[in-house]
């Protein structure tokens, strides 16, 4: 029934499988597994001929098969860490009582008597680079340091953005502290995650009636959906370094996409848990009745998500909606549909976003200070008085949260005494004189030592960032796949801002309903816990880019360019052909795989390395096309071949096992999860082959 055509060369082997008439279910399954999708090609020859190809021969087999997702291992507890740009926190849930999400409530520092459910994402290292503190404790200790002493301590604030902005991220990428000293970024992130680990384990053990072992805990770390694979791998490596999980148990750690986690939580929200801006407009940061500030920081330590027969879910099966995660550093957008009958989620358009978070308002404030007092002075003050600069930005952050479109009175920003004194020493005049000279009428000076920012000034600070967010959402809403969307959920810390809420409602309120969860700042964290409890809840995702490898095909005169011609042993080959694994914005189901089979080029070869290429477009023919770049490598570590029974000698004796069949290594790649995964087996022995995929050493 099957006709197999083998084309063999001295360095490559290609398998074409075509199926004939399908008579029964067994034939169908065989046909499915051997389907070639009419895509053929041969991976490139050894690097002695072309150094940008892999150093192995191959048996090439195209397969896209959807298999049933593997069920999660039985963990006793799920701990999720929402690692944000401006604030971070954790939550956990026991699998035996998965309807209850426990919010963290033990943060050092901050406001006395308040159980802070998130902490500032700031970290302090001693002058000899040892970990000192994180969050409120780091901020408060650094604030109390003597100005001269503070110059020797390493304070890191909003350092997550570095991972997004670095195009060539590696394990050696460095972060710069406020005082200018640099440390490897992986070490800073590991310090932070180690702090979360210790903090969370204490609370989990207090809540647990039994002794928990390390392997009983599943960890979840959130990252922006717009992060590329290197950044996701970076967070995983930092978690390994922090001791969250051992590297040989990768399934114990999940990487959750922030807007996706928020969507998982939002799909279960009930009517009383959301605010519909179309029905309840917000004025001056207050509810419709003007009595209660709109704030997500409710202080309960444990949230019950139990079914209430008198309450109804806000969303229904079949609903389509957009989630806009407006955080401190980035804004992420994802589009989902709730599927029948299980209520799983299907992504309708690839995740998008950019660096449009609340940090943009902080940068605008810094630019305003440079305009008033001079860029050279601000840079000098940041270098010589780093702790005072941090105090100034903290003061602005506190006032920024109270800004609202209808506010009549000005916002007062306290200037540290060291700022006023430093300016007078270096410029020979007062800050009040500098304000008058700047002709900036929207900023006034208060005799109490404060900058008074008028409503016009606050609008000027917010407008560029908010305009970017609104424009990006409008562009997404204009896509054909998104036109039937009925709801837009605003989540994340920046979504608490009445300035952003009003702008989004004004621009998009007529095309869809703008919905804000009551616990808007904790939505991602709670959704990450739910994702850890059931990683299969998102059934279909969209591929963010096109992935593939470089291959050789038979050269066809007139179709292939002459500069791609390679002649080897009298045969003509076309080099650099891009073999596509998945395409940009392609729907990929969870568990759907792409398979390739390879044979080593040499007897005794112990490693196969395959280069992966990616592109932001699907219009790709060759790996040398514009916009195509090498983004990672797949490494297959080959085990010693098994010695047949009765063979003389062994591997130790240097015996070579010969046989009529070429050795085949079958690699299986998954693109439907939050991370790209690869596994492999030795077909002849059916033994697992150690397979890894690396995006950081590129």
Automatic annotation (TrEMBL):
InterPro entries: ATPase_NBD
N-terminal signal peptide: none
UniProt-recorded name of the protein: Heat shock protein 12B
The organism's taxonomic lineage, starting at the top: Eukaryota, Metazoa, Chordata, Craniata, Vertebrata
